[in-house]
Design a protein that fits this description.
One of its GO terms (cellular component) is cytosol. By secondary structure, this protein is mainly alpha-helical. Helix content is 59%, strand content 4%. The chain has helices spanning 5-12, 14-17, 28-35, 37-40, 43-51, 58-61, 73-97, 116-131, 137-154, 172-182, 193-208, and strands at residues 102-105, 111-114.
Length: 209
């Protein structure tokens, strides 16, 4: 949330408190804010304390998190909407405009700094849910279309922005977002680059003609 600097300041302090030498921040301005933590916290001392603790069991570390209770339809819908917002908000700028790191408004109108790492997580989550039957292709497409209208509204008046709705089939950005989800299981290691690059070339060719 690059616009909420006080929130970031309060949140990022947890990194050096956990023994982190550095932490990712979304802009040079926030990097300066984050640097204050390293004047306030003795990371080396914290690392020594952590190093003296009883080591965790390897089986505990390597135990994958699993779904222990059935999700409600409302929980599934909300999770799909949030991830669709993240995917569409980022992909439409990447594919249509060539912007690789974007400040994207989430579904609650809070600006977040998004990159391909976030895109990979969101697209793989929905791809996994499809594979394991937590959602359907029809539900995903329906939610993506509804969220596309919201993303278009959020970018209304932005120079160079190309709307996705209502001509979803002809929107290269929208189709790229669906590709990332529906081809997610087949994508090697879930990498997003092949689809993004292919669709970016398509968009450049289309808009150059």
């Amino acid at each position: 949330m690059p616009d909420l600097m006080k929130t970031m300041y309060n949140t990022k302090t947890n990194h050096p408190k956990a023994g982190a030498n550095t932490a990712w921040v979304p802009s040079p301005t926030l990097a300066v804010v984050h640097a204050l933590h390293y004047h306030e916290i003795n990371v080396l001392s914290i690392q020594r304390t952590i190093g003296s603790r009883v080591k965790a069991k390897l089986d505990d570390i390597l135990s994958p998190p699993v779904l222990r209770e059935e999700l409600s339809p409302e929980q599934i819908e909300t999770e799909l909407e949030n991830n669709a917002q993240s995917i569409l908000g980022y992909v439409v700028h990447w594919v249509e405009e060539g912007i690789g790191c974007s400040k994207i408004a989430d579904i609650n109108e809070i600006n977040l700094m998004e990159d391909r790492a976030t895109l990979r997580i969101s697209s793989q989550l929905i791809a996994s849910w499809l594979k394991h039957g937590l959602t359907t292709r029809e539900q995903v497409v329906d939610i993506f279309k509804r969220i596309a209208v919201i993303v278009d509204k959020q970018n209304e008046g932005a120079a160079g922005y190309r709307k996705m709705a209502p001509n979803y089939d002809s929107s290269v950005g929208f189709q790229a977002a669906l590709d990332l989800v529906f081809q997610g299981v087949d994508s090697p290691n879930g990498y997003t680059e092949p689809i993004l690059h292919s669709r970016r070339r398509e968009a450049k060719t289309l808009h150059a003609s």
